[in-house]
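hey so u asked for the seq, here:
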Amino acid sequence: MSEALWDRLPAEGFGVTTRPDGSALITHPEYGSPFTILGRADAEWVTLSYRFPIAHRPLDAHDLAVMLDMNDQLVLFRLAFDDREKLMLYAHWPTRQLDGELFGFWVAEMIAHAAEGTAQLDEYFARQRG
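ran it, structure tokens below
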């Protein structure tokens, strides 16, 4: 099921590496490999996730508010902490609603949010360090 789904991404503009469990690592050349997202899919849902590279300290409520301010599409994208206290960006869509062009658009949006969020968090932490 999921391999066919990843095949729906437009051939130009995406790098897709399918993993043995059916998930995929997806990149976009505009943003480069640091912003690789993980895609998982089943018959009903597609889930994309990105772990922000924030290992030096956990985020506090103010940090998270800065991140939420960046994210203008909260209906589609959700921020959460995973079990290792890393900030994750998630997106979920019904599988049946994703044709190639629309799917490609949302995957590109997800990668763009990952890149923009990382840059804004880097700036915020740089200001905090003085």
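The CA atoms of residues 46 and 93 lie 5 Å apart. DSSP finds three helices and six strands in the chain.
lmk if thats what u needed
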